[in-house]
Amino acid sequence: MKITLSHGSGGKATSELIDKIFARSFSNPILNMMEDSAVVDGHRKIAITTDSFVVTPLFFNGGDIGRLAVCGTVNDLLMRGAVPKYITSAFIIEEGADTKTLERIAKSMAETAAEAGVTVVAGDTKVIEGNGGVYINTAGVGFVDNENIVSTNLHDGDCVIVSGTMGDHHATILSARMEIENNIKSDNAPLTDIVKKLIDGGIDIHCMRDVTRGGLGTVLNELANASCKVIEIEESAIPISDEVKAFSKILGLNILHMGNEGKLVAIVPSEQADKAVQLMKQSKYGENAAIIGKVTNGDGVTLITPLGGQRKVNVLIGEGLPRIC
């Protein structure tokens, strides 16, 4: 099998690559859980994650690769209910990159780290042949009090909540590449405040995932498969900005497969769902939070259309703009 761009999309091809190569070679009980970050033993329970960022272009409306790197790393820790503390940053720099570009990226990373409440404690640089590109690899560490926020912890009757509008980051990056002028802005953001308010508010969070590559449809399929449940969502309940909705229709894009970089899915008990939404709405970056569905017995993801019809939602298949992060 030869690697194609579709293997970086976060969809079916990515899953096959991970399953057939990396999961098979590195298999162990911790890795096999396939969560956004791994919880391991230390002086106390810690969460660890790693990520790489290769977005094109490096700077876009609402953010840049530096902010994206911090947000992506911090959010993966938060999805296990961890309190993010430390991150590392390794730069792979192509020959020809401008030092002013690196200064902008580094400054953005520092500002975002301060906003997220983490400290950059280690780093590395490598220079390779190329045409001025910049790539960032990170690792993150946080402390964990609740180990039960996992994708296998879904229960019949649970509500599915999203923290805001879908597709913003995907539409921003695609607009930049196609040189389409609009006011769509990336949602790349650290979700620290949202998660903290949910935990401090006493919400019994069963599971969380950030909605990145592959989009909402892929994320929900991963959760449904891990828990052997059906996730049923209402199409009309999914928050989408008017501009992103129009953009996706013009280009024939499926909003369920468009990625974000500052939104999460939370699965909570039905009796706590309204409170969870209110806590999100009071949080930074959670003003458009909404309940979009529920968990039931069965398997897969089902979309209920505005007319009452039902259709199966699959994971992203194909390329799906892989370099959004």
Characterization of this structure:
There is one protein chain. The chain is an alpha+beta fold. The chain has two domains: 36-143, PurM-like, N-terminal domain (60s Ribosomal Protein L30, Chain: A, 2-Layer Sandwich); 159-312, Alpha-Beta Complex (Phosphoribosyl-aminoimidazole Synthetase, Chain A, domain 2), CATH 3.90.650.10. 30% of the residues lie in helices and 25% in strands. It is built from eight helices and 14 strands. It has helices spanning 12-26, 65-78, 99-116, 168-178, 192-200, 215-227, 242-251, 273-281, and strands at 38-40, 46-53, 59-60, 63-64, 83-94, 119-128, 134-143, 159-162, 207-210, 229-234, 264-268, 290-297, 300-304, 310-312. It has a seven-stranded mixed sheet. A hairpin with a 5-residue loop joins strand 1 (38-40) and strand 2. Helix 2 (65-78) runs parallel beside helix 3 (99-116). It is globular and about 55 Å long. 46% of the residues are buried. The model has no long low-confidence stretch (mean pLDDT 93).
Give a concise summary.
With 325 residues, the chain is α+β, with helices and mostly antiparallel strands. The chain has 2 domains: 36-143, PurM-like, N-terminal domain (60s Ribosomal Protein L30, Chain: A, 2-Layer Sandwich), CATH 3.30.1330.10; 159-312, Phosphoribosyl-aminoimidazole Synthetase, Chain A, domain 2 (Alpha-Beta Complex). The protein has 8 helices and 14 strands.
